[in-house]
Structures are given as C-alpha cells and as structure tokens.
C-alpha cells in the first residue's frame, strides 16, 4: 500500500503553514503601519516647520541677514536651495532634484561625525522677498526612533503570546483531529480482523461517529450485501448447472452402457441418436450459461421471427414431465413476433418456464402463447404461493430465466391467475427493430 501521512500529521503540517502565514502577514502589516505612521508624523511636522522657516527667513533677509540655513526646534533643520556640504549629509544631487514637493522621504545615511542615522528629508517651495525658492527640511527625531524600538519590543511580547496561543490551538486541533479520526481507525482495525468469509454487517465504530463515518459504514454494508448476494447467485448457478447437466449425463452413461450389449444396427443407431441429442443439449446449455458471464455485442444479432415449430419443439422436449398427468400442453401463436436472441438461449429460457409450469400442474392446461409484444407460459397449477414437492431446481430455473431476460433487455414477471395457477410473462423490448 502506498505510504501516506496520517490525519494528525496532515493537520500539523497544514496548521503550521497557516500559523506561519498568519505570523508573517501580521509582522508585515505591523512594519508597514509603523513606517507609515512615522512618515506621516514627520511629514506633518515638517510642513508646520516649513511655514515657520518661511517667516523666519523672510524676517532675517529683510534685515539684511541672508542666511542659508535655520534650525527649527526641536527636530528640523532647514537649508536653502541645497543642503549638501552644509548639513553634512551624503546624498547624490540628482536625488535632491528628483524629490517631489511637500512629500517626506526617509533616508538612511551617514552624518559626518554622527554615524548612521535614519532621517526624513522634504523639499518645499516658499516665497522669499518676492522670489520662489526651494528649501530642504531635514527631520531627525531620535526620540521617535527610540519609541519605535519600544513599540517593537511591546509587539514582540504580543507576538510571543500569540505564538503560544497558536501552539495551544494546534494542540487542541490535533486532539479534535484524533477524536474525529478515531472511528475511522477503529473501522480499519475491525475490517482487518474480519475473515474473508465474514460478510455480516459491520457495526458502527466506537467514539464520535460523524454522519460521514456512518454513511461510510452503511455503504460498506451495502457493498458486502451485494457481494453476499453475488456469492449466493454463484452457488445457485452451480447447483442449477449440476442439476441440468445430470439428465444428459445419465443419458450418455446409459447409452454407452447399452452399446456393449447388442450389435443390432438399428439399436446402435438409436443409442447414437440418444448420445447426439444429449451432447447437443449439454452444449446448448453450457453455451447459454457461459454467454451470461461474458459481455457480448447484442447489436450484432439480427432479428428473427418466432416459428411455431421452434416453440413446439421446446414444449415437446419436456413433455415427459407430464407423464401420468391429465394436462394438455399447447402452443398458441397469435402474432408473428420478431426477437433478437439465439435459439439456444431462448430454448433454455422457455424450457425453464415450461418445466416449472409442468411441475406445478397436476391437471388442466399449460399454454405457451406468443402475442405482439410478449411471450407467456400460463398454467392451471398451484400458483405462486406454494412450491411443488419433490421438484429440484424450481427456483434456480427462474433465476437463470431472469438473467437471460436481463441480458437481452427483456422483462420477466410472474403473476397468479384469477382462475388458479400462474402466468410467466416475458415482455419483449427489441428497440428499433424494423417491422417484418
């Protein structure tokens, strides 16, 4: 059997993947929110500082003090036109030219003598003595950086707690998985302990039996019941075959025995005819039974009409069963009926129905009747409510008859007659067969 993971293992794997995805998503969202909050806070401060810087520069330049830089406490530094070389930052001039106005950008760089810093830079346009000029604001908030670390530490604690809760949830899910799969494991062990001959219904497994588990048990029981019925049909098939082959075998054995007692040509010819008839009967019977066990293309068979002589021969082949009985057996061919079935199969089918009718009738009439769309065998015997005594293979013949009808898409039905006896009716369904 292909090696597969248990439900508990799959639950652990899937839950771990989900937990890892949740934690990763949580950290990513947290980092994005933290960065956005920092950028938004710095940008709002720098916009306010730009207004203050514009007023201070206008005042200083009006007094003749044309300064190029200012400090706006507590976190901002303002530079006129270009901060490079004045602030000590090391960025490319092209970077400054590419900045959009009134947007704060975070930059990681080295401040000369200060080490590595994270700061925000923003370019904005002001009016200075009637001229439009660009100023650059540098925002250095070490307190916020420390607050960011503190927030991260707090979130780390929450993350550890969340991870602990995930582990607890995983344990609970594994326990639930174990409880839910326990009935399946018990069912598997029950089936493993059962012998091949044990086809008794499987009891529901112990534990929490879900609807799906109960449905599985029910379907398994139905499947076992089908197997049981199939085995019973096979046993019945074997009993029927041995019963039907017994007569021709006895005829062959008797004929062979008699051949050694006379040299009369007429006697020998008679025994030869008996041997030929018995062997033909056995061959037809075996061929029909074998045809029931293999798939055949029925469409390759051609429709043929039922003839009176064929029906009469089938009836006469079993007339010996009416010995010492006051029973009239007859064939009524009211309509010409087209059928798609080999002669040997029809012989076995009708022969079984006729034998049952002969066996069940002590006096009266047995009629083999052909109508426009059906064939029937009716009798005035005991009916369906009782089985004739001393008749072997009574039900087995009907079993084979049903199988033959099913193979050729016919329908066999049995019904009691109002005047007594019963009728076996075969409804012919030939499909789209052209009319004769």
From TrEMBL:
Name listed for the protein in its UniProt record: histidine kinase
Pfam families: HATPase_c, HisKA
PANTHER family in the cross-refs: HISTIDINE KINASE, SENSOR HISTIDINE KINASE YKOH
InterPro entries xrefs: HAMP_dom, HATPase_C_sf, HATPase_dom, His_kinase_dom, HisK_dim/P_dom, HisK_dim/P_sf, TCS_sensor_his_kinase
Catalytic activity: ATP + protein L-histidine = ADP + protein N-phospho-L-histidine
Sample GO molecular function, one term: phosphorelay sensor kinase activity
Subcellular location per the Swiss-Prot or TrEMBL entry: Membrane
SMART domains per record: HATPase_c, HisKA
Domain HAMP intervals: 178-232
Domain Histidine kinase residues, every copy: 240-432
Record EC number: 2.7.13.3
GO cellular component: plasma membrane
SUPFAM superfamilies: ATPase domain of HSP90 chaperone/DNA topoisomerase II/histidine kinase (SSF55874), Homodimeric domain of signal transducing histidine kinase (SSF47384)
Database matches in PROSITE patterns: HAMP (PS50885), HIS_KIN (PS50109)
Keywords per UniProt: Kinase, Membrane, Phosphoprotein, Transferase, Transmembrane, Transmembrane helix, Two-component regulatory system
């Amino acid at each position: 059997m292909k090696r597969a993971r248990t439900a508990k293992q799959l639950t652990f794997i899937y839950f771990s993947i989900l937990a890892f995805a949740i934690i990763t998503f949580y950290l990513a969202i947290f980092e994005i929110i933290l960065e956005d909050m920092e950028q938004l806070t710095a940008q709002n401060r720098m916009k306010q500082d730009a207004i203050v810087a514009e007023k201070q520069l206008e005042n200083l330049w009006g007094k003749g003090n044309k300064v190029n830089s200012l400090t706006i406490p507590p976190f901002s530094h303002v530079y006129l036109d270009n901060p490079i070389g004045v602030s000590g930052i090391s960025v490319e001039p092209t970077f400054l030219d590419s900045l959009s106005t009134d947007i704060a950008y975070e930059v990681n760089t080295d401040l000369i003598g200060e080490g590595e810093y994270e700061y925000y830079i923003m370019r904005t346009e002001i009016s200075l003595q009637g001229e439009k000029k660009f100023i650059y604001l540098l925002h250095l908030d070490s307190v916020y950086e420390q607050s960011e670390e503190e927030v991260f530490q707090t979130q780390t604690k929450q993350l550890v707690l969340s991870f602990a809760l995930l582990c607890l949830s995983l344990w609970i899910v594994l326990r639930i998985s174990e409880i839910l799969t326990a009935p399946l494991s018990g069912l598997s062990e029950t089936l493993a302990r059962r012998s091949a001959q044990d086809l008794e219904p499987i009891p529901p497994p112990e534990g929490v039996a879900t609807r799906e588990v109960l449905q599985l048990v029910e379907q398994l029981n139905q499947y076992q019941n089908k197997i049981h019925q199939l085995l019973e049909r096979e046993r019945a098939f074997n009993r029927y075959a041995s019963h039907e082959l017994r007569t021709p075998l006895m005829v062959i054995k008797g004929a062979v025995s008699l051949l050694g007692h006379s040299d009369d040509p007429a006697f020998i010819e008679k025994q030869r005819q008996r041997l030929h008839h018995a062997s033909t009967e056995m061959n037809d019977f075996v061929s029909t039974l074998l045809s029931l066990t293999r798939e055949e293309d029925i469409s390759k068979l051609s429709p043929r009409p039922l003839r009176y002589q064929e029906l009469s021969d089938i009836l006469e082949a079993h007339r010996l069963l009416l010995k010492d009985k006051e029973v009239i057996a007859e064939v009524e061919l009211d309509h010409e009926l087209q059928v798609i079935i080999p002669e040997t199969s029809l012989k076995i089918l009708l022969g079984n129905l006729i034998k049952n009718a002969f066996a069940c009738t002590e006096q009266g009439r047995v009629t083999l009747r052909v109508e426009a769309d059906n064939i029937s065998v009716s009798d005035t015997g005991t009916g369906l409510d009782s089985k004739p005594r001393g008749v072997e293979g009574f039900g087995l013949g009907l079993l084979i008859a049903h199988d033959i009808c099913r193979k050729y898409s016919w329908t066999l039905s049995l019904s009691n007659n109002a005047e007594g006896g019963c009728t076996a009716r075969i409804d012919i369904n030939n499909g789209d067969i052209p009319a004769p």
